[in-house]
Specification:
Shape: globular
Largest sheet: 4 strands, mixed
Strand order of the largest sheet: 1-7-4-2
Bound molecules: protoporphyrin IX containing FE
CATH architecture: Orthogonal Bundle
Number of domains: 1
Helix content: 40-55%
Number of helices: 17
CATH class: Mainly Alpha
CATH topology: Cytochrome p450
Distance between the termini: 61 Å
Number of strands: 13
Radius of gyration: 22 Å
Structural class: alpha+beta
Strand content: 5-15%
Oligomer: single chain
CATH superfamily: Cytochrome P450
Length: 429
């Protein structure tokens, strides 16, 4: 495997999408991890292309309805679980908190609400099973057979069963993305109900496996940096034109996609936490012998079957590109109140400088939805709740760091949970 360490060379690699293929790798790994038959097989002509077409429903004008639905679901959870009580402090573990809100809100948004239009009773169990599966995920991707991983096979089976067609058919408000995929799967007699459900389960992993830790890091850094939190909250009130001293406890909030787009400092804060926590590896398998042109008229010969990898984490932590790269700076991706996009290496501008979502043909199709989701979560958090670290419990502990066991596979989990406390904001009291 050849690692490309110079980010100035990334465009040369990414532009060779045809000769440097991502899907050969993912097409091998995903069926093993999620338990469905390979989509490239002759048994399913056109399935792969159909699956790819479905990704469009996560982007462009389709994003607005996803954002709207996510807002309603987040609001439902905030109202039911977080905004009760008479303003007294509640303590919690921050990862658990983010995980329970983001897991359930994403589940409801992507797959729809339960038969009666409400929450799925099984959510806590599903989440527990998901976490057990997720802990084994790096081993599955590394090719360890599932039967060597204790109860992981049984856990995966139970997760898959949740998405069997006779259940999903009864849900309401399902996203167009999942509805289209369900229709697509129905066209293949060779796909059994369990195979269809396994595809849906794979999307559950893709849609929450990284979004939950991303929401955690975005929240953690803001709460640990009160100046950043104050600036982001101020921007939010300004964009929504809500005075900071207004009591919002009885009011539901909606944020449109346009308003989310105007939250420049919040977007920068989210990108900064993604920069610090993401560790995805972009893997390409060479499809034919060829001479790969690099910058400055140089080229290198590559052979069919060679594996080439980009590891953007090394770029994210490069002090030449990011001053004090270990330090969180919520406004690092802003300049004069606007988004900052010029970052340099060796005095040359970088085309790619922050890559938590992969690149080129393997770039995450859910990236716009993911960032919107995290921004929506932060918005409700900052508007409705006062949040702070449990100073006593946290003071004596080492700083939270990314747990490297997931290195190469997306957003890293924290190496420990964080004690914090929260209560509804009541500016007048
Ligand atoms: C912060 C959250 C997220 C991060 C950091 C993230 C990151 C990534 C990365 C790095 C890849 C490419 C994998 C590779 O190159 O090996 C990917 C693929 C993918 N992501 Fe995301 N993702 C996130 C959220 C989402 C969401 C919310 C969805 C859907 C609702 C989603 C759907 C997908 C799908 C379907 C693929 C596979 C694409 C393909 O096979 O070509 N992701 N994601």
């Amino acid at each position: 495997m050849t690692f490309i360490m110079n980010p100035l060379l990334y465009p040369s690699i990414i532009k060779h999408g045809r000769q440097l293929d991502f899907h050969e790798f993912s097409g091998r790994v995903a069926p093993l991890a999620f338990g469905y038959p390979p989509v490239h097989s002759e048994r399913f002509p056109g399935l792969d292309q159909g699956v790819r077409r479905s990704f469009r429903l996560l982007q462009g004008h389709n994003l607005a309805s996803l954002v709207e639905s996510m807002m309603a679901n987040l609001m439902l959870l905030f109202r039911k679980d977080l905004l009760g009580g008479r303003g007294s402090w509640r303590s919690g573990s921050m990862y658990d908190f983010c995980s329970s809100v983001m897991f359930e809100a994403t589940l409801l948004t992507v797959y729809g609400r339960a038969a009666g239009g409400g929450r799925h009773d099984e959510t806590p169990d599903l989440q527990d099973l998901f976490n057990r599966f997720d802990r084994m995920f790096p081993l599955l991707v590394a090719g360890v057979p599932i039967w060597l991983l204790g109860r992981t096979g049984a856990v995966r089976e139970r997760l898959i069963r949740f998405f069997l067609p006779h259940r999903t058919r009864r849900w309401s408000g399902t996203s167009r993305f999942i509805a289209m995929r369900s229709e697509l799967f129905e066209q293949y007699d060779a796909l059994g109900d369990t195979d269809k459900a396994a595809h849906h389960f794979a999307i559950l992993w893709a849609s929450v496996g990284n979004t939950v830790p991303a929401a955690f890091w975005a929240m953690y850094h803001l709460v640990a940096h009160p100046d950043a939190l104050a600036a982001v909250r101020q921007e939010l009130h300004r964009v929504l034109q809500i005075p900071e001293n207004l009591d919002l406890r009885e009011q539901d909030i909606t944020l449109t996609k346009e308003q989310l787009d105007q939250l420049i400092y919040m977007e920068s804060a989210v990108n900064e936490s993604l920069r610090l926590s993401s560790s995805s590896m972009n893997i390409r398998v060479v499809q034919e012998d060829f001479s790969m042109s690099l910058e400055d008229q140089r080229s290198v010969a590559v052979r069919r079957g060679d594996v080439i990898a980009l590891f953007p984490q090394s770029m994210h932590m490069d002090p030449e590109i990011y001053q004090d790269p270990e330090t969180y700076q919520y406004d690092r991706f802003t300049e004069d109140g606007r988004e900052k996009t010029d970052f340099f290496k060796d005095g040359k501008p970088l085309h790619y400088y922050c890559m938590p979502f992969g690149s080129g043909s393997s770039m995450c199709p859910g990236r716009f939805f993911a960032v919107s989701e995290v921004k929506q979560f932060l918005s409700l958090l900052l508007l409705y709740l006062e949040v702070e670290l449990e100073a006593e419990a946290e003071r004596a502990r080492a700083p939270v760091k990314p747990d490297t066991r997931r290195a190469g596979l997306g957003i890293q989990l924290p190496d420990r949970d964080v004690h914090f406390r929260y209560r509804p904001r009541c500016p007048g009291d």
